[in-house]
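Session log. Operator J.P. requested a structure for one protein chain; no other inputs attached. Running the standard single-chain path with token output.
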Amino acid sequence: MAEALVSKAEVQTSFQMFAVHGDAKATGKEMNGKNFAKICKDCHIIDGKNVTTTDVDIIFSKIKAKPARVITFEQFNQALTELAPKRFKGKSKEEALQKLYGLIVGKRPANIGVTKVAKVGAVDRLTDTSKYTGLHKERFDESGKGKGKAGREDIPDSSGYVAGYKGSGTYDGKVKDT
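Structure written below.
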């Protein structure tokens, strides 16, 4: 039973997803060492026996250009070609590489172990703006978003009228009528 060959385009899609992971400025054309180690870990290329994180780091350093800190997709393929025989011992180089591609295709960066927002006891209650009263209530709009400086400061009324006076702004009209 022959396995379907995996195309480089399918591998490149996963490469691009991992290349931009955690880096807002990344274009997806180059991958740094941290993301290379992440793709190896998330796709189970690192098995702890035949391939370790140290092996992955060494191969990354060997493949990349001396001053560079990133590798291109072509260099990524070179790295996989070196990792394949280590990961799948006893297989031909081409067969091992295809199995490695099979591990990578369709994978996305996992966010397992990422810190979650704490929702413990008082935190929930204290951050719920709908329960605020008095002056604190005025610092937030209906959606719970803060108003910033406008919600914090008493903005002085320099119109010359007393704060509770209802006829504010009618003086000019009275003077012109006479």
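Operator note: The chain has a mean pLDDT of 80.
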